[in-house]
Design goal:
Strand content of chain A: 5-15%
Radius of gyration of chain B: 19 Å
Number of helices of chain B: 12
Strand order of the largest sheet of chain B: 3-2-4-5-7-6-12
Number of helices of chain A: 11
Shape of chain A: globular
Strand order of the largest sheet of chain A: 2-1-3-4-8-7
Largest interface: A-B, 52 and 50 residues
Structural class of chain B: alpha/beta
Order of helices and strands of chain A: HHEHHEHEHEEEEHEHHHH
Distance between the termini of chain A: 46 Å
Shape of chain B: globular
Helix content of chain A: 40-55%
Distance between the termini of chain B: 42 Å
Largest sheet of chain B: 7 strands, mixed
Structural class of chain A: alpha/beta
CATH class of chain A: Alpha Beta
Number of domains of chain B: 2
Oligomer: heterodimer
């Protein structure tokens, strides 16, 4: 694919993919810095190392599709097109954040992008994704929903209940397991009775596949087939995307040394998804060193702008404490009748 | 007005709202082909079809989450729990998802969803099937909680719950489903959430209660009337948000209060009602408030022990006599 030097559309696409992944990387490097400075509080889970999963997956969706994810959500939010400004402001807890600063790192939401949230309870959002699939079928649309979760969530009852219903009712849901090998510090081999976890879909007669999550094109390929299946047949897919988290589970977790070795980490670092894509594009003559440097500079500036924007944004006033607990509306008759 | 059972009143509310708004659907165990474990959804599958009256596997966590997801993108689910006992498996979806989605999304995703089903004890169903969960649910900001005690309230409150753009918990009662009463026929009959109702006016003492206990309160008031004591019965109807002005008004009028609930004492609904009274009516009380509630034990199967565990007419009468210093 990347070898097609002459195809400008392909080159443009590859640059978009690279840009999306590199933006996530540069953004999160600054998140770590902001966390150390106390500008980001609470929990902060970095996605570094997994960028080919978010970019590869979300580059296959339409704007009217839906996305739902876990608390490790910065990368997917960026890949979905939420602005770096609105995400950084959210991480800083400011009123210009995508959830007005009330959600924080783990709870990014943006209705305009059908980004249905980062969710903090492992497995809890998987049935919600099934419900969105139900709503799509209920309305007769051809959209799909992509639901990201880690490999540790596959052992959770919520996954099995949700997967069974999606297969039983034929719902257009694409469940993406981001298998980064560790549920916090517990290796998959210590948590799951089987290790080819995409095979769990067999219990529900659901389409399934496994793919190298460091290769953005491979991810796009399997996701593309799943999206096609969802749109044309309305049926679900379980995809196991094998990837690796280059950072600790959260900011308080050492990168290596407790539950994984430095040697293991170093092995995976050789398969940095951004490096792999960049190498491929350079080999194919699709991007020069200068262009690469220019792209990097542009993205660093973009992230700096997001930082400055977030820093300047005010926190909500104290009165906002009680806002958005409930809405004070009901479905009025005219609204109901119009449907 | 028609005389109908509490069950039929709920059925009418569901039917009318399903007709009114095609975003509304009913989902739960046995709601469709079986016509409802308690027949509340009788005939709905036949009228509305299997996309809108949906049988689920036995997966409370799963189908509660399906409701949450559907509500996030604009449908208006009614999720039936065969009983609220089983809803414990779904608490993550109710508490962590439905109740907080609006807040943690900064106001972007409201949750027009109803969770409903029978709550509290029936007869000799044992410890796991005989529990009143209202204080658990009413504890949570972001939820509304209603507990209708009459057929008319069942219809009016369920319809209001379905039209509300927030998550509303509707606590019904297995022992109430066959109770008959007058119910307005109008398909626009809706009872506003958050409004208590004086079910019987009186001047000498107040019983503050809700749900299944309303009938016991009315019977107790009848008993006290024979002694010339006029008891006012305040039916809260909605437990969150609670109608505090109505509580204050009745206590300021009678100066004596009994708080009657089906569930356990510790951290129960009655504790909250008593707190509102001591805050607002401290100088108006002529007697300490008395609470009537379930014994502080799991529910026994043993018939005599179960009777001893439950709040009932005799205990309620005794509490009223105590606040009136009659004994």
């Amino acid at each position: 694919m990347a070898k097609k030097k002459a195809d400008p559309a392909s080159v443009a696409l590859n640059r978009e993919l690279l840009r999306s992944m590199l933006l996530q990387r540069r953004f999160e490097e600054r998140c770590a810095e902001a966390y150390a400075l106390g500008k980001i509080g609470g929990f902060c889970h970095l996605y570094i190392g997994q960028e080919a999963v978010s970019t590869g997956t979300l580059s296959m969706l339409r704007p009217d599709d839906y996305v739902i994810t876990t608390y490790r959500d910065h990368g997917q939010a960026l890949a979905r097109g939420l602005s770096a400004r609105s995400i950084m402001a959210e991480l800083f807890g400011r009123s210009d954040g995508c959830a007005r600063g009330k959600g924080g790192s783990m709870h990014l939401f943006d209705k305009a992008h059908n980004f249905l949230g980062g969710h903090g309870i492992v497995g809890g959002h998987i049935p919600i994704a099934t419900g969105v699939g139900f709503a799509i079928k209920y309305r007769g649309g051809d959209q799909c929903i992509v639901c990201f979760f880690g490999e540790a969530a596959i052992n959770n009852g919520a996954f099995h209940e949700a997967a069974n219903m999606a297969a039983l009712w034929k719902l257009p849901v694409i469940y993406i397991i981001e298998n980064n090998r560790y549920g916090m510090g517990t290796a998959i081999e210590r948590a799951s009775s089987i290790h080819d976890i995409y095979e769990r879909a067999g219990s529900y007669d659901m389409a399934r596949d496994v793919v190298d999550g460091q290769d953005v094109f491979a991810v796009r390929d399997v996701v593309g087939r799943a999206v096609e299946r969802a749109r044309t047949q309305g049926t679900p897919t379980l995809l196991e995307v094998r990837t690796y988290r280059f950072m600790g589970h959260s900011m308080s977790d050492a990168v290596s040394g407790t539950y994984r070795t430095k040697a293991e980490l170093d092995q995976y670092l050789k398969r940095d998804p951004i490096m792999l894509l960049r190498q491929r594009m350079q080999d194919a003559g699709e991007i020069s060193e200068d262009e690469m440097a220019a792209l990097d500079a542009e993205l660093k500036a973009l992230v700096q702008d997001a930082w400055d924007f977030a820093d300047a944004s005010p926190e909500l006033p104290l009165e906002a404490l009680y806002e958005d607990v409930l809405v004070d509306t009901t479905s009025d008759a005219a609204d109901a009748a119009a449907r | 007005m028609a005389i109908m059972t509490y069950r039929d009143a709920l059925n009418a509310a569901l039917r009318e709202e399903l007709r009114r708004d095609d975003r509304v659907f009913l989902m739960g165990e046995e709601v469709a082909v079986y016509q409802g474990a308690y027949k509340v959804s009788k005939g709905l599958l036949q009228e509305f079809g299997e996309m809108r009256i949906v049988d689920t596997p036995i997966t409370e966590l799963g189908f509660a989450g399906v409701g949450v997801g559907a509500a996030m993108v604009g449908l208006r689910p009614i999720i039936e729990f065969m009983t609220w006992n089983f809803a414990l498996l779904a608490l993550d979806q109710i508490v962590n998802a439905a109740a907080k989605m609006l807040y943690m999304s900064g106001g972007q995703y409201n949750m027009p969803i109803v969770f409903r089903g029978p709550n509290g004890a029936a007869l000799q169903l044992g410890a796991q099937h005989s529990q009143a969960w209202e204080s658990w649910l009413a504890h949570i900001p972001g939820l509304k909680v209603v507990a209708p005690g009459t057929p008319a309230d069942a219809k009016g409150l369920l319809k209001a719950a379905i039209r509300d753009d927030n998550p509303v918990m509707v606590l019904e009662g297995e022992m109430l489903y066959n109770v008959k009463g007058e119910v307005p026929d109008s398909s626009d009959f809706v009872i506003p959430l958050g409004k208590a109702e004086v079910k019987r006016a009186g001047t000498d003492a107040s019983i503050i209660t809700y749900g299944k206990m309303v009938n016991i309160a009315l019977q107790a008031a009848e008993v006290l009337a024979k002694d010339g004591v006029q008891v006012e019965v305040l039916d809260l109807r909605t437990l969150r948000p609670m109608d505090v002005p109505a509580i204050v008004a009745t206590v300021m009028k009678t100066n004596r209060a009994v708080v009657l609930e089906e569930g356990w004492e510790v951290c129960g609904m009655g504790a909250q009602v008593v707190d509102y009274i001591q805050r607002e009516c401290f100088d108006s009380l002529d007697a300490p408030i008395v609470r009537v509630h379930q014994a502080d034990t799991p529910m026994p199967y043993t018939k005599s022990l179960e009777k001893a565990a439950k709040p009932d007419l005799a205990k309620t009468v005794s509490a009223l006599r105590a606040v009136c210093y009659l004994d």
